Amino acid sequence: MATPFPPFDGSAPKQQKFSEPPEMGIDPSKRYTANMSTSMGEIVIALDPIKAPKTVNNFVFLALNHYFDGIIFHRIINGFVCQGGDPTGTGRGGPGYRFEDELPKPGQYEIGSVAMANAGPDTNGSQFFLISGPSGAGLPPLYSLFGKIVKGLDVLEQMQSVKTGGGDKPVDDVIINSVTITQHDD
Predict the structure, then answer these.
(1) Per-residue three-class SS string for the chain
(2) What is the per-residue pLDDT for 153?
(3) Side-chain half-sphere of 132: how many Cα atoms within 13 Å?
(4) Are 146 and 51 in contact (CB under 8 A)?
(5) What fold does the segment set 32-184 form as a domain?
(6) Phi and psi dihedrals of 64, rounded to 5?
(7) How many whole angstroms from its chain centre is CA 30?
(8) Whether residue 162 has pLDDT greater than 80
(9) What pTM does this model have?
(10) Rounded CA gap, 2 and 5, in Å?
């Protein structure tokens, strides 16, 4: 049994634990953008429901449940990626379920790409990363690619330049304040 999809109006209460992946709540023929408000500025992501319908559906589902609100980017590596989406802030947390990969063709990652972090094949949950440099763009196609930053690459540049400590964790938290979803009907 899939978890019911929340309303698009943002009225769902904050929830960070689920027993099952979400039901399909998006229309893959429509366009979706995610506005990610961070402690360093705004990032706008064009989501790609054509190439990754399950992954976009999952990200939208979590955002509409306010799942990402207050979560930190727990791993930032300059020239590589900024990773977030774990409510525990450790890199080991998730929503309580996993779902299968929707992998891109080789060579499709670029700076600004948004992809799922995983612990091996078909282990997607809530952790994602923003590709911030050439090392990230050169990753093998083992991570579901589901969006691209269309505004806020300057914020991504600032994020990847923060001082980090052990485990590539930023010394000063880089926080996701909220993620709001817009559905475009054109």
Answers:
(1) CCECCCCCCCCCCCCCCCCCCECCCCCCCCEEEEEEEECCEEEEEEECCCCCHHHHHHHHHHHHCCCCCCCEEEEEECCCEEEECCCCCCCCCCCCCCECCCCCCCCCCCCCEEEECCCCCCCECCCEEEECCHHHHCCCCCCCEEEEEEECHHHHHHHHCCCECHHHCECCCCEEEEEEEEEECC
(2) 98
(3) 24
(4) yes
(5) Cyclophilin (2.40.100)
(6) -65, -25
(7) 19
(8) yes
(9) 0.97
(10) 9
What is the residue type of 35?
N
Contact 91, 73 (CB under 8 A): no
- Does residue 156 contact residue 82 with C-beta atoms inside 8 Å? yes
Say what the pLDDT of residue 53 is: 98
If you average pLDDT over residues 118-129, what whole number do you get? 97
Residue 186 has pLDDT above 80, yes or no: no
